[in-house]
């Protein structure tokens, strides 16, 4: 994950499951090294990326960044969404490193570390 002096940027890529699997295995075997400028999070399609970063979800990320809610209940009150709905959405976002869920004694605090998401979209199906 590249971070500059001005902002924290999450680099996201789109590639086929085959490319992602082969890339991951090559890195694990030591045959390939991650470049600093390449994506750290991968989606298998623009469709799946669009679902996770839909306009309501993007606004939710911005709300978390600006309001810094301490609990999911607080975020639910701010967003007008139910805790159960938020919990599912945030777990999916956590899988893609868009949000971090800090587990505390009896609560979970959502945190967004990013100022920006850069998306790399190759025009060739199996390239990244």
Can you tag this structure with a few keywords?
5 strands, 128 residues, two-stranded antiparallel ribbon, elongated, alpha/beta, 3-stranded parallel sheet
Structure explained in plain terms:
This protein has 5 helices and 5 strands. With 128 residues, it is an alpha/beta fold. The protein has a 3-stranded parallel β-sheet with strand order 2-1-5. A two-stranded antiparallel ribbon has the order 3-4. β1, α1 (17-28) and β2 (41-43) form a beta-alpha-beta unit. The longest helix has 13 residues, at 55-67. It is elongated and about 45 Å long.
- Helix fraction bin: 40-55%
Counting copies of identical and different chains, the oligomeric state is: single chain
Distance between the termini: 16 Å
Q: Specify the structural class.
A: alpha/beta
Shape: elongated
Largest sheet geometry: 3 strands, parallel
List low-pLDDT spans: 1-5
Q: Classify the beta-strand content into a percent band.
A: 15-25%
Q: Give the SSE order as H and E letters.
A: EHEHHHHEEE
Cα radius of gyration in angstroms: 16 Å
Strand order across the largest sheet: 2-1-5
Helix count, DSSP H or I runs of 4 or more residues: 5
Mean pLDDT metric: 90
Number of beta-strand segments: 5
Summary?
With 128 residues, the chain is of the alpha/beta class. The chain is 41% helix and 17% strand. The longest helix has 13 residues.
């Amino acid at each position: 994950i590249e971070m500059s002096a001005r902002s924290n940027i999450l680099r996201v890529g789109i590639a086929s499951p085959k490319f992602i699997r082969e890339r991951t295995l090559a890195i694990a075997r030591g045959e390939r090294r991650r470049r600093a400028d390449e994506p750290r999070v991968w989606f298998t399609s623009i469709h799946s990326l669009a679902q996770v970063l839909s306009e309501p979800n993007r606004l939710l990320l911005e709300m978390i960044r600006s309001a810094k809610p301490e609990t999911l209940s607080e975020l639910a009150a701010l967003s007008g969404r139910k805790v159960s709905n938020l919990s599912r959405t945030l777990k999916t976002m956590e899988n893609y490193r868009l949000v971090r869920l800090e587990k505390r004694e009896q609560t979970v605090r959502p945190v967004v570390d990013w100022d920006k998401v850069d998306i790399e979209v190759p025009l060739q199906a199996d390239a990244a």
